[in-house]
Structure formats: C-alpha cells, structure tokens
Amino acid sequence: MDSVTQAALGAAVAGVVAGRKCSPKILLAGAALGTLPDLDVLISYGDPVSDMVKHRGFSHSMLVLLPFSLLLAGFWHKWWPTRFSFRHLWLLIAACLITHPLLDAFTSYGTQLLWPFSVSVAVSSIFIIDPLYTLPLLLMLVAGLIWHQQMARLCRIGLVISSCYLIWSVVALNIIEDRVREQLDGTPLAGSPVFITPTPINTVLWRVVVLDGETYWEGLTSLLDEQPDVDFLAKERGSWLLAEKSVYLNMLESFTHHFVKYEQVGASIKVTDLRLGLAEYLPFQFVLASQNSEGSWAVTDPQRLEGPRVSPKHLPALWLRLLGNQDIDANLCHIKECPKPIHIGV
User: Cis ω on the peptide bond leading into residue 24 (within 30° of 0)?
Assistant: First the structure.
C-alpha cells in the first residue's frame, strides 16, 4: 500500500496499543514505524528486475521484524525512558511493524512474509491505493488530535472501519472468483491459470486475466453488472524466442507465476508483467534480450521501460464500467458500437 496509508495504519495501531497512554508523540512514532519496512526501496539490488522482485522481501518478513522489534524495544527502553513497560513497548513496536506487511499481502504485488523462504503472499483483494480504506484511519486520527482524551478510542474506531472494508474486499474477491469459475467450467479453459485483481481505488470493478498458451484473455466485471458473464478480449501473449532463459526471466516468471507476455519490439524482446496495471497500461516492462546486426538473439542485462500513462479521457469509461455499463470494452478505450460478448471457449 502507499506510504500515507501505511503511516495512518501505524499511527492507529500505536494509538490502540498505547491505550490510555496514547499521545500525539505516540501517534507520530507509530506512523514512522508503519512506514519503516518500505525503506527497502532505497536499496539497489543491481538491476531493475531484482529491484522489483526483491522489494517487500527481508524488510517485510515476520522472521525479521519480530526479532528486530525486540532489539528496537530494548534499545528504546534503555536510552529513552518511557511510561511503558518493556513488554508494552515491544508490543506497540511489533504491532506497528507487522501490520505493514500484513496489509501489503492483500495487494496483488506479493509480500514475502516468511523471507528467506520463497513464500510470496498476494491475496489481491485491494488496490495499492484505496481511499475507502485510508480515509477512516485519517479522519479518526485527526479527530483524536482534537479530542485528546478520546484518542485511543477514536483510533480503535478507525481501525475497525478500515478492517471491515478489508474483509469486504476479500468477500468481493470471492464473489468474482465464483463468477469467473462458473463461466469457465465446461470450456477448454476450465482449470487454466486465472488472475483477478481490483481496478484502481475501488473494490467494485475487477480485472480478470486468463492464460491460454500464447494467448491471454482479459476482461472487466463489476459487482453492479446485470449479466454476470465476463466479456473477454483475446490478446497475444507471445512466447520466449530464445532457447536460453536468463536468470532475470526466471526470476520474473516465478515472481508473477508466469503471468507475463513476451513481445518483440524492433531488435528487442520485451517482457511485461500482466498482473500489475490495467488493460494497455501495464507499468512493469523489461527488455531482456536483443538482436545483433547479424540477426542473432542473445539475453541481455535487464532494462526497464517506462510504461504508458493512463489517459484522462479513459477515466469516464472506467467509471461507467464500474457502474455496470457492459458496453465498455476491456481496453476502456471506447464504447463498443456493436456490443458482442466474447464467451471464452465457445
């Protein structure tokens, strides 16, 4: 999630754990602790693929954060005496640190909660920025700064509301999963890999990607749709053209669970993460091979390409699709002149 959300969550958690001892300083400390794990973005792993794959690694691991919280609590308790017992202080620090990766695990990016073990958790029920999750926390924190005596109680209210919204996101995801599974059953794509994620800043409109060899199917479905069937568009996924796979391609395929597409662009092969983004706006694109003057292909050191930016003219179409207008195609580029649903496998 974004830094504002993580800071707000850390502050609210600190306020709840502190209870009657809560103060503006405690909220500030909680906000700082809540954003601390994301400082790993300052670390360079030497190439753009590693920077992407290894983000949310050791700094988001329960196996690192728990002992780190003990060390930090011990250092804090010794050098900055507080009204908190060591146990209470450790609980506050640990709760602020651990809730950060737990929230991140609900996004589609993936979080290595058990690093160094290669276990990546990605529930994919909430977008990385969602005001409906963040605003209750921020409003209650502001209210707590105004009414100091109710600070802990207001933090608790904000945390309950945001947590209920997070639970709702999982419920909505299950509804969409059931909808897609029922549509694919009995078709050649039954059992194919499926990726489902919410579209930006909501949990009503969802993006669905289905892998089908060198093709992938992409569609949008809203909880407000009158017809539950997803209108899919078939898109070219391509394949890796070289006999040799680089270590970077293996990393990327493992990280994305093979939800990538391969595309020859001039004298380069571009590999794109299909999970993160929307329609044609996929931000994580890498050049992993190039062709020399003799026409031979060879793997290269990865180079990240700048992804296309969302055009403001497409935002109204996204809003209409969210409201259940099924005449908007999956590229969100235009209203279909002759709406004709594409049913997978038919």
Answer: no
The residue among 29, 94, 47, 43 whose CA lies nearest residue 67 is 94
Per-residue pLDDT band for 18 (boundaries 50, 70, 90) equals: very high
The three-state secondary structure class of 302 is strand
**For residues 298 and 45, is the Cβ–Cβ distance under 8 A?**
no
CB 235 within 8 A of CB 217: yes
| CA-closest candidate to residue 233, choices 125, 108, 336 | 336
DSSP 152-208: HHHHHHHHHHHHHHHHHHHHHHHHHHHHHHHHHTTSTTTT--EEEEEPTT-SSEEEE
Q: Which two tokens stand for residue 240?
A: 């890796």
In angstroms, the CA 264 to CA 128 distance is 30
Q: Say how far apart CA 129 and CA 169 lie, in whole Å.
A: 13
Nearest to 42, CA basis, from 28, 55, 29: 55
SS3 assignment, position 238: coil
The whole-model pTM stands at: 0.88
Q: What is the pLDDT of residues 234-251, one digit of tens each?
A: 999 999 988 888 899 999
